[in-house]
Fold:
Amino acid sequence: MDKIRTPSLFPQRKKQKGMHPSISLSSFEVKFNELVIFIIEKKMGVTRRRFLMELARRKGFRVENELSDSVTHIVAENNSYDEVLEWLRGHKVKDSSRFQLLDISWFTACMEAGKPVDLENKHQLTVQQVYPITSNIPESEASSFVAGRVSQYACQRRTTLNNCNKKFTDAFEILAENYEFRENGVPCLAFMRAASVLKCLPFTIVRMQDLGGLPCMGDEIRAVIEEILDEGESSKAKEVLTDERYQSFKLFSSVFGVGLKTSEKWYRMGFRTLEDVKADKTLKLSKMQKAGFLYHEDLISRVSKAEADAVSWIVKDAVRTFLPDALVTITGGFRRGKKIGHDVDFLITSPELRQEEEVLHRVIDLWKKQGLLLYYDLVESTFEQAKLPSRKVDAFDHFEKCFAILKLHQQRVDTSCCETSEELDEAKVRVWKAIRVDLVVSPFEQYAYALLGWTGSRQFERDLRRYATHERKMILDNHALYDKTKRIFLKAKSEEEIFAHLGLDYMEPSERNA
Ligand code: DCT
Ligand code: MG
Structure:
Protein backbone atom coordinates (compact mmCIF):
# COMPACT_ATOMS: atom_id res chain seq x y z
CA MET A 1 0.00 0.00 0.00
CA ASP A 2 1.54 3.22 -1.05
CA LYS A 3 1.46 6.49 0.66
CA ILE A 4 0.99 8.83 -2.25
CA ARG A 5 2.80 12.04 -1.62
CA THR A 6 0.70 14.92 -2.91
CA PRO A 7 2.57 16.63 -5.68
CA SER A 8 3.67 20.14 -4.90
CA LEU A 9 1.26 22.73 -6.07
CA PHE A 10 3.33 24.02 -8.91
CA PRO A 11 5.81 21.30 -9.71
CA GLN A 12 8.99 22.62 -11.19
CA ARG A 13 9.49 20.88 -14.48
CA LYS A 14 12.91 19.46 -14.93
CA LYS A 15 14.68 19.66 -18.21
CA GLN A 16 14.67 16.24 -19.77
CA LYS A 17 17.08 14.76 -22.21
CA GLY A 18 16.13 15.29 -25.81
CA MET A 19 13.64 18.00 -25.06
CA HIS A 20 14.06 21.41 -26.57
CA PRO A 21 13.99 24.42 -24.33
CA SER A 22 10.85 26.27 -25.27
CA ILE A 23 11.00 29.83 -26.39
CA SER A 24 8.58 32.24 -24.85
CA LEU A 25 7.77 34.99 -27.30
CA SER A 26 6.72 37.35 -24.57
CA SER A 27 8.59 40.60 -24.15
CA PHE A 28 7.27 41.01 -20.60
CA GLU A 29 9.29 40.12 -17.56
CA VAL A 30 8.44 36.67 -16.22
CA LYS A 31 7.70 36.89 -12.50
CA PHE A 32 6.39 33.38 -11.89
CA ASN A 33 8.90 30.91 -13.23
CA GLU A 34 7.46 27.89 -11.49
CA LEU A 35 4.62 27.40 -13.92
CA VAL A 36 4.21 27.54 -17.69
CA ILE A 37 0.73 28.02 -19.07
CA PHE A 38 -0.78 26.91 -22.34
CA ILE A 39 -4.31 27.95 -23.31
CA ILE A 40 -6.38 25.72 -25.57
CA GLU A 41 -7.99 27.62 -28.40
CA LYS A 42 -10.80 25.11 -28.94
CA LYS A 43 -14.24 26.59 -28.08
CA MET A 44 -12.51 29.82 -27.05
CA GLY A 45 -11.51 31.31 -30.35
CA VAL A 46 -8.34 32.99 -31.58
CA THR A 47 -9.15 36.48 -30.40
CA ARG A 48 -10.12 35.66 -26.83
CA ARG A 49 -7.13 33.32 -26.50
CA ARG A 50 -4.77 36.01 -27.74
CA PHE A 51 -6.28 38.53 -25.33
CA LEU A 52 -5.93 36.18 -22.35
CA MET A 53 -2.36 35.25 -23.27
CA GLU A 54 -1.39 38.88 -23.51
CA LEU A 55 -3.09 39.65 -20.20
CA ALA A 56 -1.27 36.86 -18.38
CA ARG A 57 2.10 37.80 -19.85
CA ARG A 58 1.60 41.39 -18.80
CA LYS A 59 1.02 40.14 -15.26
CA GLY A 60 4.30 38.22 -15.26
CA PHE A 61 3.09 34.72 -16.18
CA ARG A 62 4.93 32.58 -18.66
CA VAL A 63 2.50 31.61 -21.44
CA GLU A 64 3.50 29.46 -24.39
CA ASN A 65 2.12 29.77 -27.91
CA GLU A 66 2.66 26.09 -28.60
CA LEU A 67 2.23 23.03 -26.42
CA SER A 68 5.95 22.76 -25.68
CA ASP A 69 7.72 20.37 -23.31
CA SER A 70 7.99 23.04 -20.67
CA VAL A 71 4.23 23.55 -20.29
CA THR A 72 2.95 22.62 -16.81
CA HIS A 73 -0.59 24.08 -16.72
CA ILE A 74 -3.15 23.66 -19.51
CA VAL A 75 -6.18 25.91 -19.37
CA ALA A 76 -9.43 25.27 -21.23
CA GLU A 77 -12.79 27.01 -21.41
CA ASN A 78 -16.09 25.19 -21.93
CA ASN A 79 -14.25 21.92 -22.53
CA SER A 80 -14.82 18.81 -20.43
CA TYR A 81 -11.98 16.68 -19.13
CA ASP A 82 -12.66 14.13 -21.86
CA GLU A 83 -12.61 16.80 -24.54
CA VAL A 84 -9.27 18.10 -23.32
CA LEU A 85 -7.85 14.57 -23.25
CA GLU A 86 -9.13 14.01 -26.75
CA TRP A 87 -7.50 17.24 -27.85
CA LEU A 88 -4.22 16.20 -26.24
CA ARG A 89 -4.37 12.81 -27.92
CA GLY A 90 -4.91 14.61 -31.22
CA HIS A 91 -1.71 16.51 -30.49
CA LYS A 92 0.21 13.27 -29.94
CA VAL A 93 0.35 13.67 -26.15
CA LYS A 94 0.16 10.19 -24.68
CA ASP A 95 0.67 11.01 -21.04
CA SER A 96 -1.57 13.83 -19.87
CA SER A 97 -0.58 13.34 -16.23
CA ARG A 98 2.41 15.65 -16.62
CA PHE A 99 0.05 18.61 -16.91
CA GLN A 100 -2.41 20.24 -14.58
CA LEU A 101 -5.63 20.32 -16.61
CA LEU A 102 -7.50 23.40 -15.49
CA ASP A 103 -10.69 25.24 -16.07
CA ILE A 104 -10.61 28.89 -17.05
CA SER A 105 -11.87 29.71 -13.51
CA TRP A 106 -8.34 29.06 -12.19
CA PHE A 107 -6.86 31.32 -14.84
CA THR A 108 -9.25 34.20 -14.09
CA ALA A 109 -8.63 33.80 -10.34
CA CYS A 110 -4.89 34.15 -11.05
CA MET A 111 -5.47 37.24 -13.16
CA GLU A 112 -7.55 38.81 -10.41
CA ALA A 113 -4.96 37.98 -7.76
CA GLY A 114 -2.09 39.08 -10.00
CA LYS A 115 -0.24 35.90 -9.03
CA PRO A 116 -0.70 32.11 -9.22
CA VAL A 117 -3.49 31.01 -6.87
CA ASP A 118 -3.65 27.60 -5.18
CA LEU A 119 -5.28 24.86 -7.20
CA GLU A 120 -8.62 23.90 -5.73
CA ASN A 121 -10.82 21.00 -6.70
CA LYS A 122 -13.20 23.32 -8.45
CA HIS A 123 -10.39 24.44 -10.78
CA GLN A 124 -9.35 20.97 -11.87
CA LEU A 125 -10.82 19.34 -14.91
CA THR A 126 -11.67 15.86 -13.80
CA VAL A 127 -13.60 13.00 -15.18
CA GLN A 128 -17.26 12.52 -14.31
CA GLN A 129 -17.65 16.23 -13.98
CA VAL A 130 -21.30 16.38 -14.80
CA TYR A 131 -21.97 20.05 -14.32
CA PRO A 132 -20.03 23.05 -15.49
CA ILE A 133 -17.67 23.92 -12.66
CA THR A 134 -19.08 27.37 -12.13
CA SER A 135 -22.73 26.29 -11.85
CA ASN A 136 -24.63 26.89 -8.62
CA ILE A 137 -25.79 23.34 -8.05
CA PRO A 138 -25.43 22.36 -4.37
CA GLU A 139 -22.53 20.04 -3.74
CA SER A 140 -24.60 17.22 -2.23
CA GLU A 141 -26.93 17.18 -5.22
CA ALA A 142 -24.00 17.09 -7.62
CA SER A 143 -22.34 14.31 -5.72
CA SER A 144 -25.38 12.06 -5.50
CA PHE A 145 -25.91 12.49 -9.21
CA VAL A 146 -22.33 11.42 -9.79
CA ALA A 147 -22.54 8.64 -7.19
CA GLY A 148 -25.37 6.91 -9.02
CA ARG A 149 -23.10 6.59 -12.03
CA VAL A 150 -19.99 5.32 -10.28
CA SER A 151 -19.23 1.75 -11.30
CA GLN A 152 -18.29 -0.96 -8.81
CA TYR A 153 -15.37 -1.77 -11.15
CA ALA A 154 -12.22 0.38 -11.02
CA CYS A 155 -11.73 -0.19 -14.75
CA GLN A 156 -14.88 1.86 -15.34
CA ARG A 157 -13.82 4.72 -13.09
CA ARG A 158 -11.25 7.22 -14.25
CA THR A 159 -9.00 7.68 -11.23
CA THR A 160 -6.21 10.22 -11.42
CA LEU A 161 -3.71 11.04 -8.68
CA ASN A 162 -5.86 13.97 -7.71
CA ASN A 163 -7.49 12.48 -4.61
CA CYS A 164 -10.06 14.83 -3.01
CA ASN A 165 -10.79 12.37 -0.18
CA LYS A 166 -7.34 11.65 1.17
CA LYS A 167 -8.35 11.97 4.82
CA PHE A 168 -10.77 9.07 4.32
CA THR A 169 -8.65 6.93 2.01
CA ASP A 170 -5.57 7.22 4.27
CA ALA A 171 -7.58 5.85 7.18
CA PHE A 172 -9.06 3.09 4.99
CA GLU A 173 -5.61 2.05 3.83
CA ILE A 174 -4.31 1.79 7.39
CA LEU A 175 -7.32 -0.31 8.38
CA ALA A 176 -7.01 -2.49 5.26
CA GLU A 177 -3.32 -3.07 5.96
CA ASN A 178 -4.06 -4.04 9.54
CA TYR A 179 -6.63 -6.58 8.36
CA GLU A 180 -4.08 -7.86 5.87
CA PHE A 181 -1.51 -8.31 8.67
CA ARG A 182 -4.15 -10.28 10.54
CA GLU A 183 -4.88 -12.31 7.40
CA ASN A 184 -8.44 -11.14 7.44
CA GLY A 185 -8.96 -10.92 3.70
CA VAL A 186 -12.61 -9.93 3.44
CA PRO A 187 -12.60 -6.63 5.38
CA CYS A 188 -9.13 -5.88 3.96
CA LEU A 189 -10.49 -5.99 0.42
CA ALA A 190 -13.62 -4.07 1.46
CA PHE A 191 -11.54 -1.16 2.77
CA MET A 192 -9.27 -1.21 -0.28
CA ARG A 193 -12.27 -1.14 -2.60
CA ALA A 194 -13.89 1.68 -0.64
CA ALA A 195 -10.66 3.71 -0.78
CA SER A 196 -10.49 3.12 -4.50
CA VAL A 197 -14.08 4.35 -5.01
CA LEU A 198 -13.50 7.56 -3.05
CA LYS A 199 -10.29 8.26 -5.00
CA CYS A 200 -12.23 8.66 -8.25
CA LEU A 201 -14.67 11.27 -6.93
CA PRO A 202 -14.25 14.79 -8.29
CA PHE A 203 -15.46 16.25 -4.98
CA THR A 204 -14.74 15.88 -1.27
CA ILE A 205 -17.26 14.02 0.88
CA VAL A 206 -18.60 16.60 3.35
CA ARG A 207 -21.73 14.85 4.64
CA MET A 208 -23.04 11.32 4.74
CA GLN A 209 -25.64 12.07 2.04
CA ASP A 210 -22.77 12.60 -0.39
CA LEU A 211 -22.19 8.85 -0.34
CA GLY A 212 -25.55 8.56 -2.15
CA GLY A 213 -25.52 5.50 -4.37
CA LEU A 214 -21.76 4.93 -4.23
CA PRO A 215 -20.78 1.26 -4.47
CA CYS A 216 -18.66 -0.57 -1.86
CA MET A 217 -19.85 1.54 1.09
CA GLY A 218 -20.72 -1.07 3.72
CA ASP A 219 -21.64 -0.35 7.35
CA GLU A 220 -18.11 -0.55 8.72
CA ILE A 221 -16.88 1.82 5.99
CA ARG A 222 -19.71 4.28 6.62
CA ALA A 223 -19.00 4.27 10.35
CA VAL A 224 -15.39 5.29 9.69
CA ILE A 225 -16.46 8.05 7.29
CA GLU A 226 -19.05 9.34 9.76
CA GLU A 227 -16.50 9.52 12.55
CA ILE A 228 -14.00 11.38 10.37
CA LEU A 229 -16.72 13.84 9.36
CA ASP A 230 -17.73 14.38 13.01
CA GLU A 231 -14.40 14.16 14.82
CA GLY A 232 -11.87 14.94 12.09
CA GLU A 233 -10.15 11.57 12.51
CA SER A 234 -10.80 7.85 12.82
CA SER A 235 -10.24 6.47 16.32
CA LYS A 236 -9.94 2.97 14.84
CA ALA A 237 -7.16 3.99 12.47
CA LYS A 238 -5.44 5.89 15.26
CA GLU A 239 -5.60 2.84 17.48
CA VAL A 240 -4.12 0.65 14.74
CA LEU A 241 -1.16 3.01 14.34
CA THR A 242 -0.19 2.46 17.97
CA ASP A 243 -0.88 -1.29 17.92
CA GLU A 244 2.25 -3.31 18.66
CA ARG A 245 1.53 -6.04 16.13
CA TYR A 246 0.76 -3.52 13.37
CA GLN A 247 3.92 -1.53 14.09
CA SER A 248 6.11 -4.65 14.05
CA PHE A 249 4.54 -6.04 10.88
CA LYS A 250 4.96 -2.66 9.22
CA LEU A 251 8.66 -2.63 10.13
CA PHE A 252 9.31 -6.25 9.15
CA SER A 253 7.51 -6.03 5.83
CA SER A 254 9.46 -2.89 4.96
CA VAL A 255 12.45 -5.20 4.42
CA PHE A 256 12.80 -6.42 0.82
CA GLY A 257 12.12 -10.17 0.83
CA VAL A 258 9.99 -10.16 3.97
CA GLY A 259 6.32 -10.87 3.48
CA LEU A 260 3.42 -11.75 5.71
CA LYS A 261 4.65 -15.25 6.54
CA THR A 262 8.08 -14.16 7.77
CA SER A 263 6.63 -11.18 9.66
CA GLU A 264 4.23 -13.53 11.43
CA LYS A 265 7.08 -15.90 12.28
CA TRP A 266 9.31 -13.16 13.66
CA TYR A 267 6.46 -11.69 15.66
CA ARG A 268 5.72 -15.10 17.18
CA MET A 269 9.41 -15.46 18.02
CA GLY A 270 9.04 -12.35 20.15
CA PHE A 271 10.80 -9.85 17.86
CA ARG A 272 9.33 -6.38 17.75
CA THR A 273 11.94 -4.26 15.99
CA LEU A 274 14.45 -4.77 13.17
CA GLU A 275 17.22 -4.51 15.76
CA ASP A 276 15.69 -7.54 17.55
CA VAL A 277 15.85 -9.49 14.29
CA LYS A 278 19.41 -8.42 13.48
CA ALA A 279 20.58 -9.28 16.99
CA ASP A 280 19.57 -12.93 16.61
CA LYS A 281 22.62 -14.46 14.96
CA THR A 282 21.05 -17.92 14.70
CA LEU A 283 18.33 -16.68 12.38
CA LYS A 284 18.55 -17.96 8.80
CA LEU A 285 17.87 -15.18 6.34
CA SER A 286 17.29 -15.72 2.61
CA LYS A 287 19.66 -14.08 0.13
CA MET A 288 16.89 -11.62 -0.68
CA GLN A 289 16.33 -10.71 2.98
CA LYS A 290 20.07 -10.24 3.53
CA ALA A 291 20.09 -7.73 0.68
CA GLY A 292 16.90 -6.24 2.14
CA PHE A 293 18.64 -5.53 5.44
CA LEU A 294 21.86 -4.37 3.80
CA TYR A 295 20.17 -1.71 1.67
CA HIS A 296 17.17 -1.12 3.92
CA GLU A 297 17.73 2.58 4.46
CA ASP A 298 18.00 3.32 0.73
CA LEU A 299 15.09 1.08 -0.21
CA ILE A 300 12.63 2.63 2.25
CA SER A 301 13.57 6.14 1.15
CA ARG A 302 11.46 5.67 -2.00
CA VAL A 303 12.40 6.32 -5.61
CA SER A 304 11.87 9.76 -7.11
CA LYS A 305 10.82 10.37 -10.71
CA ALA A 306 14.30 11.74 -11.46
CA GLU A 307 15.88 8.57 -10.10
CA ALA A 308 13.43 6.44 -12.09
CA ASP A 309 14.41 8.35 -15.24
CA ALA A 310 18.09 7.77 -14.50
CA VAL A 311 17.48 4.04 -14.01
CA SER A 312 15.43 3.99 -17.20
CA TRP A 313 18.41 5.33 -19.09
CA ILE A 314 20.68 2.61 -17.65
CA VAL A 315 18.18 -0.14 -18.48
CA LYS A 316 17.57 1.06 -22.04
CA ASP A 317 21.27 1.45 -22.65
CA ALA A 318 22.05 -2.08 -21.44
CA VAL A 319 19.17 -3.78 -23.24
CA ARG A 320 19.88 -2.02 -26.53
CA THR A 321 23.53 -3.03 -26.39
CA PHE A 322 22.31 -6.55 -27.14
CA LEU A 323 18.97 -5.87 -28.81
CA PRO A 324 19.08 -2.56 -30.69
CA ASP A 325 15.41 -2.65 -31.70
CA ALA A 326 14.11 -3.64 -28.26
CA LEU A 327 11.13 -1.87 -26.79
CA VAL A 328 11.82 -0.91 -23.18
CA THR A 329 8.87 0.62 -21.37
CA ILE A 330 8.61 1.91 -17.83
CA THR A 331 5.51 0.40 -16.23
CA GLY A 332 4.01 0.40 -12.70
CA GLY A 333 3.37 3.59 -10.79
CA PHE A 334 5.74 5.76 -12.82
CA ARG A 335 3.81 4.99 -16.01
CA ARG A 336 0.67 6.12 -14.18
CA GLY A 337 2.32 9.48 -13.51
CA LYS A 338 3.35 8.92 -9.90
CA LYS A 339 6.20 11.14 -8.75
CA ILE A 340 7.46 8.59 -6.24
CA GLY A 341 7.51 4.80 -6.01
CA HIS A 342 8.94 1.86 -4.10
CA ASP A 343 10.62 0.43 -7.18
CA VAL A 344 10.99 0.99 -10.92
CA ASP A 345 9.25 -1.51 -13.19
CA PHE A 346 10.20 -2.22 -16.80
CA LEU A 347 8.76 -4.29 -19.61
CA ILE A 348 11.07 -5.43 -22.39
CA THR A 349 10.15 -6.92 -25.75
CA SER A 350 11.41 -7.11 -29.31
CA PRO A 351 9.52 -7.18 -32.59
CA GLU A 352 11.99 -9.71 -33.94
CA LEU A 353 10.86 -13.24 -33.31
CA ARG A 354 12.18 -14.69 -30.02
CA GLN A 355 15.05 -12.20 -29.96
CA GLU A 356 14.10 -11.16 -26.43
CA GLU A 357 14.90 -14.57 -24.94
CA GLU A 358 18.57 -14.13 -24.07
CA VAL A 359 18.61 -10.45 -23.31
CA LEU A 360 18.05 -10.58 -19.55
CA HIS A 361 21.02 -12.90 -18.96
CA ARG A 362 23.23 -10.64 -21.02
CA VAL A 363 22.09 -7.49 -19.24
CA ILE A 364 22.79 -9.12 -15.88
CA ASP A 365 26.28 -10.17 -16.97
CA LEU A 366 26.99 -6.67 -18.19
CA TRP A 367 25.82 -5.02 -14.97
CA LYS A 368 27.82 -7.51 -12.92
CA LYS A 369 30.94 -6.53 -14.85
CA GLN A 370 30.10 -2.84 -14.37
CA GLY A 371 29.58 -3.39 -10.64
CA LEU A 372 26.03 -2.08 -10.84
CA LEU A 373 24.19 -5.12 -9.57
CA LEU A 374 23.82 -5.22 -5.77
CA TYR A 375 21.33 -8.10 -5.85
CA TYR A 376 19.33 -10.04 -8.39
CA ASP A 377 16.93 -12.92 -8.61
CA LEU A 378 16.38 -14.17 -12.13
CA VAL A 379 13.14 -16.06 -12.63
CA GLU A 380 13.04 -18.09 -15.82
CA SER A 381 9.89 -18.10 -17.91
CA THR A 382 7.41 -20.76 -16.83
CA PHE A 383 5.38 -20.12 -19.90
CA GLU A 384 5.63 -23.56 -21.53
CA GLN A 385 4.18 -25.30 -18.48
CA ALA A 386 1.50 -22.71 -18.00
CA LYS A 387 -2.10 -23.34 -18.88
CA LEU A 388 -3.46 -20.21 -20.37
CA PRO A 389 -5.06 -18.10 -19.21
CA SER A 390 -4.61 -18.45 -15.50
CA ARG A 391 -7.84 -18.55 -13.54
CA LYS A 392 -6.31 -17.47 -10.26
CA VAL A 393 -7.02 -13.85 -9.45
CA ASP A 394 -3.77 -12.03 -8.56
CA ALA A 395 -1.72 -14.96 -9.83
CA PHE A 396 1.68 -13.91 -10.93
CA ASP A 397 2.41 -14.26 -14.62
CA HIS A 398 4.80 -16.64 -16.36
CA PHE A 399 7.17 -14.15 -17.96
CA GLU A 400 10.90 -14.29 -17.49
CA LYS A 401 11.76 -11.60 -14.97
CA CYS A 402 14.46 -10.22 -12.79
CA PHE A 403 13.99 -8.68 -9.36
CA ALA A 404 17.08 -6.60 -8.81
CA ILE A 405 18.71 -3.96 -6.66
CA LEU A 406 20.71 -1.60 -8.77
CA LYS A 407 23.47 0.76 -7.73
CA LEU A 408 22.51 4.18 -8.99
CA HIS A 409 25.35 6.69 -8.93
CA GLN A 410 24.24 10.18 -8.22
CA GLN A 411 25.85 13.48 -7.67
CA ARG A 412 24.76 15.08 -4.46
CA VAL A 413 25.94 18.53 -3.60
CA ASP A 414 26.25 19.66 -0.03
CA THR A 415 26.48 23.41 -0.44
CA SER A 416 25.68 24.41 3.10
CA CYS A 417 29.23 25.40 4.01
CA CYS A 418 30.49 26.51 0.59
CA GLU A 419 31.45 30.11 0.06
CA THR A 420 33.37 30.04 -3.21
CA SER A 421 32.74 28.22 -6.45
CA GLU A 422 35.91 26.17 -5.87
CA GLU A 423 34.53 24.99 -2.57
CA LEU A 424 31.28 24.18 -4.31
CA ASP A 425 33.11 22.01 -6.85
CA GLU A 426 34.97 20.20 -4.11
CA ALA A 427 31.80 19.57 -2.20
CA LYS A 428 30.44 17.56 -5.05
CA VAL A 429 30.61 14.03 -3.81
CA ARG A 430 29.83 11.00 -5.84
CA VAL A 431 27.50 8.80 -3.92
CA TRP A 432 25.14 6.04 -4.87
CA LYS A 433 21.74 4.82 -3.88
CA ALA A 434 20.33 1.29 -3.96
CA ILE A 435 17.18 1.13 -6.11
CA ARG A 436 14.75 -1.74 -6.52
CA VAL A 437 14.22 -2.56 -10.18
CA ASP A 438 11.88 -5.13 -11.73
CA LEU A 439 12.57 -6.23 -15.30
CA VAL A 440 9.97 -8.29 -17.15
CA VAL A 441 10.48 -9.78 -20.61
CA SER A 442 7.49 -10.57 -22.79
CA PRO A 443 7.18 -12.08 -26.27
CA PHE A 444 6.12 -9.41 -28.75
CA GLU A 445 2.65 -10.86 -29.39
CA GLN A 446 1.82 -10.70 -25.67
CA TYR A 447 3.29 -7.25 -25.14
CA ALA A 448 -0.02 -5.35 -24.96
CA TYR A 449 -1.38 -7.73 -22.31
CA ALA A 450 1.86 -7.59 -20.33
CA LEU A 451 1.88 -3.80 -20.50
CA LEU A 452 -1.71 -3.55 -19.32
CA GLY A 453 -1.01 -5.99 -16.47
CA TRP A 454 2.20 -4.35 -15.29
CA THR A 455 0.90 -0.80 -15.42
CA GLY A 456 -1.50 -1.32 -12.50
CA SER A 457 -2.65 -0.10 -10.13
CA ARG A 458 -3.23 -3.38 -8.32
CA GLN A 459 -6.83 -2.46 -7.62
CA PHE A 460 -7.31 -1.52 -11.27
CA GLU A 461 -5.88 -4.89 -12.37
CA ARG A 462 -8.01 -6.83 -9.91
CA ASP A 463 -11.18 -5.14 -11.11
CA LEU A 464 -10.22 -5.47 -14.77
CA ARG A 465 -10.01 -9.25 -14.35
CA ARG A 466 -13.15 -9.36 -12.22
CA TYR A 467 -14.99 -7.32 -14.85
CA ALA A 468 -13.80 -9.61 -17.66
CA THR A 469 -14.98 -12.70 -15.76
CA HIS A 470 -18.32 -11.47 -14.46
CA GLU A 471 -19.46 -9.03 -17.11
CA ARG A 472 -17.95 -10.49 -20.30
CA LYS A 473 -17.45 -14.20 -19.63
CA MET A 474 -13.80 -13.75 -20.55
CA ILE A 475 -10.59 -14.60 -18.75
CA LEU A 476 -7.89 -11.96 -18.66
CA ASP A 477 -4.33 -12.30 -17.44
CA ASN A 478 -0.97 -10.73 -18.26
CA HIS A 479 -0.58 -12.97 -21.34
CA ALA A 480 -3.93 -13.12 -23.07
CA LEU A 481 -7.68 -12.64 -23.15
CA TYR A 482 -9.85 -15.69 -23.64
CA ASP A 483 -13.48 -15.48 -24.73
CA LYS A 484 -15.24 -18.41 -23.06
CA THR A 485 -18.38 -18.07 -25.17
CA LYS A 486 -16.57 -18.06 -28.51
CA ARG A 487 -13.77 -20.26 -27.16
CA ILE A 488 -11.07 -18.14 -28.76
CA PHE A 489 -8.09 -16.07 -27.65
CA LEU A 490 -8.45 -12.43 -28.62
CA LYS A 491 -5.30 -10.97 -30.10
CA ALA A 492 -4.29 -7.39 -29.33
CA LYS A 493 -1.48 -5.18 -30.52
CA SER A 494 -2.25 -2.34 -28.13
CA GLU A 495 -3.91 -1.62 -24.80
CA GLU A 496 -6.63 0.23 -26.70
CA GLU A 497 -7.54 -3.01 -28.48
CA ILE A 498 -7.80 -4.90 -25.19
CA PHE A 499 -10.17 -2.30 -23.75
CA ALA A 500 -12.19 -2.57 -26.97
CA HIS A 501 -12.34 -6.39 -26.73
CA LEU A 502 -13.69 -5.98 -23.20
CA GLY A 503 -16.24 -3.37 -24.31
CA LEU A 504 -14.62 -0.76 -22.07
CA ASP A 505 -13.82 2.87 -22.83
CA TYR A 506 -10.07 3.32 -23.09
CA MET A 507 -8.34 4.73 -20.04
CA GLU A 508 -4.97 6.45 -20.03
CA PRO A 509 -2.40 5.06 -17.56
CA SER A 510 -2.80 8.29 -15.55
CA GLU A 511 -6.47 7.41 -15.07
CA ARG A 512 -5.72 3.95 -13.68
CA ASN A 513 -4.64 5.10 -10.21
CA ALA A 514 -7.48 3.24 -8.56
N1 DCT B 1 0.81 -6.03 -10.08
C1 DCT B 1 -0.39 -6.70 -10.00
N2 DCT B 1 -0.61 -7.58 -9.00
C2 DCT B 1 0.34 -7.81 -8.08
C3 DCT B 1 1.57 -7.15 -8.16
C4 DCT B 1 1.79 -6.25 -9.17
O1 DCT B 1 -1.26 -6.48 -10.82
N3 DCT B 1 0.11 -8.70 -7.12
C5 DCT B 1 1.03 -5.07 -11.16
C6 DCT B 1 0.36 -3.78 -10.91
C7 DCT B 1 1.43 -2.78 -10.73
C8 DCT B 1 2.67 -3.42 -11.29
O2 DCT B 1 2.41 -4.80 -11.32
C9 DCT B 1 3.90 -3.07 -10.54
O3 DCT B 1 3.76 -3.45 -9.16
P1 DCT B 1 4.33 -2.54 -7.99
O4 DCT B 1 5.68 -2.04 -8.35
O5 DCT B 1 4.19 -3.31 -6.74
O6 DCT B 1 3.26 -1.38 -7.94
P2 DCT B 1 3.34 0.13 -8.38
O7 DCT B 1 1.97 0.50 -8.77
O8 DCT B 1 4.42 0.34 -9.36
O9 DCT B 1 3.65 0.85 -7.01
P3 DCT B 1 5.02 1.46 -6.46
O10 DCT B 1 5.00 2.87 -6.85
O11 DCT B 1 4.95 1.29 -4.98
O12 DCT B 1 6.15 0.70 -7.06
MG1 MG C 1 6.43 -0.17 -8.96
Remarks:
- The pocket of magnesium ion (ligand 2) is lined by residues 332-333, 341, 343, 345 (CB under 6 Å).
- DSSP finds 20 helices and 14 strands in the chain.
